[in-house]
Amino acid sequence: MINPIDQNKLKKLAQVAVQVGLGLEKGQDLIMTAPLEAAPLVRLITREAYRAGAGLVTTLYSDAEATLARYRYGHDLSFDRSTGWLFEGIGQAFDNNAARLAISAENPMLLANEDPDKVGRANKAMSAASAPMRKRIVEFSINWNIVSYPSADWAKQVFPNDNEDVAVGKLADAIFAASRVDLDDPVAAWGEHNKVLAAKSKWLNEHNFAALHFSGPGTDLTIGLADNHEWMGGAAPAKNGIICNPNIPTEEVFTTPHATKVEGYVCSSKPLSYHGTLIDNIKARFEGGRIVEATASVGQEVLTKMLDTDEGARSLGEVALVPYSSPISQSGTLFYNTMFDENAACHIAQGQCYSKCFKDSESISEEQVKANGGNSSQIHVDWMIGSAETNIDGIKQNGDLVPVFRKGEWA
Amino acid sequence: MINPIDQNKLKKLAQVAVQVGLGLEKGQDLIMTAPLEAAPLVRLITREAYRAGAGLVTTLYSDAEATLARYRYGHDLSFDRSTGWLFEGIGQAFDNNAARLAISAENPMLLANEDPDKVGRANKAMSAASAPMRKRIVEFSINWNIVSYPSADWAKQVFPNDNEDVAVGKLADAIFAASRVDLDDPVAAWGEHNKVLAAKSKWLNEHNFAALHFSGPGTDLTIGLADNHEWMGGAAPAKNGIICNPNIPTEEVFTTPHATKVEGYVCSSKPLSYHGTLIDNIKARFEGGRIVEATASVGQEVLTKMLDTDEGARSLGEVALVPYSSPISQSGTLFYNTMFDENAACHIAQGQCYSKCFKDSESISEEQVKANGGNSSQIHVDWMIGSAETNIDGIKQNGDLVPVFRKGEWA
Lengths: 411, 411
Known about the structure:
The structure is a homodimer of 411-residue chains. By secondary structure, the first copy, chain A, is an alpha+beta fold. Helix content of chain A is 34%, strand content 24%. Chain A folds into two domains: 7-178, CATH 3.40.1830.10; 207-232 and 251-410, no CATH class. In chain A, strands 14-13-10-6-5-18-19-20 form an eight-stranded antiparallel sheet. A four-stranded parallel sheet of chain A has the order 2-1-3-4, with helices on both faces. In chain A, β1, α2 (39-51) and β2 (57-62) form a beta-alpha-beta unit. In chain A, α4 packs parallel to α6 (131-138). The model of chain A has no long low-confidence stretch (mean pLDDT 95).
């Protein structure tokens, strides 16, 4: 049998993850998380990290079979438990400057047939327990990165009409293309791409919009932006001074909305894969920054539980602009994976904001983030609202309108 | 291809691990450690644990490839690092009553060709960092267990003349037999076996020996026993009240020697597999409880580094009695794995003592352990000294001699 995954490109992906994604510095420890299926990429990244001078590389593996065993055989009390001890340990490692790399390869439908109540409780317990880890990520304390690996269960969801080997090969190629490792010099290509994203961010920051107005089929939404918000995209320095690209791939520029200044209605333009379940055709209405009404044709119960996670779950923590012509969008592939689908469409995120998306983010306090209108929550869930029909106007501080997107493209 | 591992017996091993090994209680979380190769057993144990009412089962996988990558590509500074953050997290979970299960399946020769200096430094860093975890284990705070899985790399070391499938099948059968899962009712068989070990412990405790004198080819060693020492073997209650069998298999009864009262010379009767390297033909001389001279025909440098780990590494933390007729010994197989080889021969351990091997161990303090002559160290390394020629006399408090072993068997 021929391995359907191009091993040379997989090796390049490991190099991009370490050099571009993390910018790993000599002496830094690295904590990796990955599903068992991604072990081949874990091993390549481990080598690259040691070659780059890593202190110690530690991988925490997850296993879909173990997750399912919990749902199939677990006692009811299991679903309110999480591994707080592990997340606290990770937080401690981050405080000692460990870098963080996540390999995304999950089966997007793993939990689709499980009891939504248990799924919701398990997600809530995990969100609460993972706060010590999430805090350092949203505050951008250390360099971090997410890359993807084409697992069989994921590939079969994306390419259901192909046999497994063909599906894995196709998903591998799509990941490699989106991650720019099909190019001769991926590291240089990422340098160029980062420049383009930086220019877009600069333009938006110069305008210092008070709000963005999104319109399109089923959407008429005004998103007030947080005071002192800053647009970002591509490479950025973490608080430890290391420049990294948190997402591979990335096509977005993004900033912080105002937690209480979002009004109107909006519908999702792609399905959302959320912790192993699917939520599709979301229609939401915002008042005073919060979702006051939300329906979904698929996954209604999980959506409601997600929005009820905590006080901040119904407000926005991110708005991101992605042209409809982005390479991932043009591939026409629905990945059922937010890392990819969010880079094929403009999107918003429920929940926690990124404190790096503020002016003077190096020194900003939690209180200042809140005073600026930044939202806080135990969740951060991106969902896609952009399409070929999306128009966006920037509303300046004096009320003037500036076209930002027309028909899904930069105006 | 037919899987060389009998899946029905593997399932029984998972049941024995959870029911006999751990005695897992409803609501207890479980932390498992395992090499990637052992994933099939991890999954079966995960199911059994959830069936038994486990809270949350979390597995921390290790990967031989990642370990080797560190030696092949790692910067020199890497070898003084360890994952203190993870061991502290595990210690915290134990304080919240999580149970602990380790699956042993390592290639005993993994690091045989690596730089002994780096191996020694990495072991030392790991020993220091893992103190928060080890402390709860040696104090028997929570129920814990070790079982084994027949990985290919291990099987090839044990049966070097067989092809991989045959070797794995043979090792699997040897593990199943030693773990009593080849019997119709393994749980009942363990109940009977635990009674036999308890009777031996009782006999030794009633004699309350001041010391044991070992003699045999190359051996003339007097091991003073700690004050208030207690012999144990088989099932025992952890401080959380749960009765568990920490080792599957186990054939030993064991207690705590006195850290300063060991005199004479002793030679090893089997090779010692130590963190992926082999140490063979150890000859050691004790004075005042400490090894003052030690040689090995293989692994001399790693042995010396191990003995130099800390102040307590040259003194004994355990002495254990195993008849030469034990099933594992009779199999004639050298497993290169302490879990098995120590249950085929009388053995002693360098380093940390078990505080459970004292009278009133429920409430004994670190200071009392020390005052009784219990040793403390960052290591606990068992090595085999018993053979078919071993004679042991118990020396009573009044100086009288009582035959304990003759020609390797209970007298």
